[in-house]
Design goal:
This protein has 113 residues and is mainly alpha-helical. It has helices at residues 4-17, 38-47, 52-62, 90-110; strands at 66-71, 74-79.
Length: 113
Amino acid sequence: METALHKFVVQAEKALDQQENALGVFLDTEGAIDNTSYDSMCTAFTRHGVDQTIVQWIRATLEGWLATAALGNVSRSVALSRSCPQGGVLSPILWCLVVDDLLVRLNEWSAYA
């Protein structure tokens, strides 16, 4: 599977080999993993042709988590709706597909600019 980043690198190398200008824009993704929505993860899987049964299974594993904070005798819990889980085998795949989906969409948009 050729990713959007790979396509960019190939195009940039080709331009440089032909002594043309090449411009790359890179995004600072600090905090992005914590703010990636479950919807965007599942949409990225769907766009990459993953079977809907697997997408539904992934959504079921993502949803339903609670974050709890406690101070003294008081605690508060909230349901999570975003954040790429960390420390698992699936986590890098989730993140890479979301970023690849973003790059593909940016490339489509730049064709009209």
